[in-house]
Each structure stands twice: as C-alpha cells, then as structure tokens.
Amino acid sequence: MEEPIGSEREEGVSLGLTAAQSEFWLAHELSPGGSSNRIAQFVDLDGALDVSLMKRSVRQALDECEPMRCRFVASGAELRQIVETADDWELPVIDLSTQPDPSGAAGAWIDAILRRPLDLQAGRLYEHALLQLGATRWRLFLSAHHIVIDGAGGALFVQRIDEVYTRLCAGLRVGESWFGTLQEVVDSETAYRQGSPRFDKDRAFWTEHMSNAPESVRLAGGPKPRTLASQLRAVSRLSENQFHDVRHLATRLGASVPAVLAAATSILLHQAGRSDDVVLGLPVTGRSSVSRRTPAALANLLPMRLRVFGSMTASELIAQAADEILAVLRRQHYRGVDIARDLGIRGGLHALVSMQLNFMAFDYDLDFAGCAAEHQVVSIGNILDTAITAITDHATDGLEVTLYGNTDLFDQDTIAGWMGMWRR
C-alpha cells in the first residue's frame, strides 16, 4: 500500500512577516514583475525517471513546506501571511522532446515563466514543472516568489524532493519531514529583534564598523535604476585543477574559498572605481539553529568592507577578506537595511554596497534514484546592479561562477566582458 501524501501540519495559521519578507514585499511593490522577485532553479536529469513518483515527491515536499504555501493579506497597516493547503495542485509535465532544440525550448519556456508577475495577495506563489527533453532526459524546474523562499531554502526544498523520490523508488516510506515550521521561524527572529542583548551588540558593531563608508562602486555608469529589472547572465567554469589551485591557495593562507573570491572581486571594483575603500554586498542565510532547516525567506545582504591598496600583496588582501567574512557571519542576523538606516545613508542599502558576492555552499550532490543530476540556479532575486554567484559543481569537482547584471544597465556583451576581467 502506498504511503499517504497528506500533510499533518496545521493550516490556516496567520503570522506576521519576517524582516526579510517585509523587505521583499517592498521590493515587489517597487517592481512587481520579472525575475527580480523570483528564486528559480532546475535539475537536469538523465535516466529512467518515474514520472508518477516525481509528481508525488514534489507534492510531498510542497505539503511539508509551510512558507511556500502562504498567501499574504493586508490587515489595516499590518501585513500577515496565512498558511494554506496546496489544494488539488500537481506537478505539470510538459513534453518538449519533439522540438528541434528541446534544451533551447526549455530555456525559452523558463524565461517566459520568470517574466510573468506573481500576485502576492491572490494565487499561488510557486511555479514548478517537469519538462521532458528526450526519452530519458528531463528538467525539473522549481520556482517561487522571493517572499516565501530564499536560496538556502531552495536548496533544502530540492534536497527533500530528491530524498523522497529516491526513497519512493526503493519502495521505502518517505519518513518524517525535517522541515521546521513557519511559526518557529517567526518566533526565533522575534526573540532576536525584540529586547535581545545580542541585537544591541550587533547594532553597535555595525554602526562603528561602517562609519564614514564610501559611496558604492558600480560597474555601470550613471545613476542606479529605481526598478528591479530582469537579469542577464555570464557563466564561467573553473575546472577541477583550477578550483584545486584556488582551494590550495586558501588552505595555505589559512583562509577560505569565499575569501579568495572576495579578494578577486574587490580588486575588480578597486580598478573600476579607483577607490581604496570597497564595500561588497555579502548575502548570508540569516538563519538560527532553529530556522536553518526550514525553507523560508530569511536571506540578508550585509556590507563587507575591504581596504584595497596597490602596495598590498594578494596574501594580505585574502587574509583581510577572511577576517571580514568571519566578522560579518558572526553578526548576520542584523539586517543590512537597518545598517543603512542607522547610518542615515540616502538611497539605503544599495547605495552602500557594490557588487554582491554569493558563495552558495549548499549541498547539491543529488541522487534521484541513480539518475544523472545536474543542478543550476536560474534566478537569485533582486539585483539593482551586479552580482556574482559561485557554486561547487559536484559533477566535475569544479566551480561554476555566474555574473548577473541588471538589464536596464548592461547588455550581454558587457556582462561577458566584466566576467572575463574578473576571471583574469
């Protein structure tokens, strides 16, 4: 007998928004359409896929994921989120295998989905689908509004789908969900932000650390756009040997791979802006021990300040970056927008930080019952200027680096050119 798919979790719960969700709400009001409000990823699968079990697996993960099933309502001056059931939704299966270029058709289909706006107060805030590209080739597409899930949450979501599918294929029970509840997430953040001594200490640190901060250095000239447009991408891959060299350098210096990447990015911005004081935007998960197992929207963007001088050695810059990353991570629950507000910076956080650097150290070593699986992030949410993501490629033991650019500021050739300069 098949195990029931239904969720035991409480429905109809009404909760306030997390600080991150409030920020994403405002971003949506600023620019309600396009990929700027989306978190999107896909997994390319090659093998004997059981479509019915994949449908069950995605539905199971959705039933367990309370934040993704929320709708949002305005109650007077307050915004609330209400956990609802996924009603009769099931994973759509779209056959593109007869197209002349199935992969290209899948890319065009995904681009069209990402350009389609989502209504925060009506309808579903997720869009998932299984695209058939050939007899044994499939693309599992997973997308949701940033207000219900962030990059870390997306990683948890696809891991659970993988786990459920693999167990179902083996004839096993799916087991208890390890996702936390939305109530736990909200309660944990409230405890930090309301009367916590740690909150006051973090605020004091950021106020001192970012005093007299410079204007952000941007790769695009002219004023920053006021809207969050769609994104262009340029991808560069470090081979196994090249990534080994990066890791070896980090280990020799007692640093981390993100510190090496941050140093390289700060050099690019130093050269572009001719500034010795560079502030990168460092996305962090913003999660506590309670919330790190919950697919929710908690991501935070924090300033990472580096002094870059022509007389510095690479080792000195990497060591400085390592210390700065550690300082940021220790205080990652204090919101970046609050830092800008505390400092009275006109233009807010995006006037403080330059390029975002996102090292996505999530576990994408997926199984899917023996199918060859290749994961790719498609959209990372709000970008006013530029952002770099770096993801370990488990298939090649290399590193995939992607430069994203706002379509209101860049064309594809310009983004590709900056990507080439960063890599050099």
Describe the protein.
A hairpin with a 2-residue loop joins strand 3 (70-75) and strand 4 (78-83). The longest helix has 19 residues, at 151-169. With 424 residues, the protein is of the alpha+beta class. The chain has helices spanning 19-30, 51-64, 102-115, 151-169, 182-193, 197-209, 240-252, 257-273, 314-330, 336-343, 412-423, and strands at 14-16, 38-46, 70-75, 78-83, 93-95, 126-132, 137-145, 231-238, 277-284, 300-307, 356-360, 372-380, 386-393, 398-406. Residues 1-8 have low confidence and may be disordered. A 5-stranded mixed β-sheet has the order 5-6-7-2-12, sandwiched between helices.
- How much helix is in the residues? 25-40%
Count all strands and give the number. Answer: 14
Instruction: Tell me the major beta sheet.
Output: 5 strands, mixed
Rg result: 21 Å
* General shape: globular
Task: Kindly estimate the percentage of residues that lie in beta strands according to DSSP.
Answer: 15-25%
Q: How many DSSP helices?
A: 11
- The spatial strand order of the largest sheet comes to 5-6-7-2-12
Distance between the termini: 58 Å
Rounded mean pLDDT score: 88
Order of SSEs: EHEHEEEHEEHHHEHHEEHHEEEEH
Low-confidence stretches: 1-8
The secondary-structure class comes to alpha+beta
